[in-house]
Amino acid sequence: MKPISTLQALHLLAETFDEPLDRLAPATARDAIAGWDSMGALSLMAELDERFNIELTAEASRAMARVADVIDLLRRHGALVD
Q1: Are 3 and 71 in contact (CB under 8 A)?
Q2: Cα torsion for 29, 30, 35, 38, to the nearest 10°?
Q3: Is the pLDDT of residue 8 over 80?
Q4: Domains along the chain?
Q5: Half-sphere exposure (CA, 13 Å, Cβ side) for 39?
Q6: CA-CA distance, 73 to 56, in Å (whole number)?
């Protein structure tokens, strides 16, 4: 696994949620992202597992309220470098 930057993480989220990159920032709330619904959460879980070998439980996924929560998760698992 090669660590990614915060910008690359934002690109990943934009792609996963089919959201324009300019609408995403660490402070962006989950509720502000139309694609971060139940299917989007499953897609995110699959992406994190496939790309970074991070297994995210449904409960942990539901607890994520902002883009920053995903970035922090990547950082804690050594998948993000600044």
Answers
A1: no
A2: -170
A3: yes
A4: 6-76 (1.10.1200.10)
A5: 4
A6: 10
- H helices of 1-82, in order, are 6-17, 38-52, 58-63, 67-76
Residue that has been written with the tokens 């989007």 in this structure = 40
- Which of 21-40 are b and which e, b meaning 16 or more Cβ less than 10 Å from the residue's Cβ? eeebeeebebeebebbeeeb
Amino acid letter for position 72: D
**Integer Cα distance of 54 and 12 in angstroms:** 15
Q: What is the pLDDT of residues 25-72, one digit of tens each?
A: 999 999 999 999 999 999 999 999 999 999 999 899 999 999 999 999
Distance CA 36, CA 78 (A): 24
Amino acid at position 9, single letter: A
